[in-house]
Amino acid sequence: MARDYDPVQGQWYEDLEENEVFRVLSVNPDEEIIEVQYENGDIEEMDLDTWHELDLERAQEPEGWASDDDAEDEEEDDEEDWDEDEDDDDWDDDDDDEDLDDEDDDYSDRDDA
Question: What's the pTM?
């Protein structure tokens, strides 16, 4: 008996006949096309009629799955960490101050002459 679930973007499903887990990437109601991504990374489009023929069960996100969205979030977190480190790190400010002190010392001889 087929379970008739409407495709929901971001939801994971298991095709019980093929024993495959996939996630719905997008649903285009105008063209009645559903884009899915399987656990192995393969992407496929199917029409709504094919979707309703599948024997589906809702599933949990597979362990170890790293979606593109997760990867982008991690990259943004890394960039934020870099920005925070940059604000806290003023090693170059100290060097600039020392350089100015050295320049003042070099010109101090000219004032005395």
Answer: 0.56
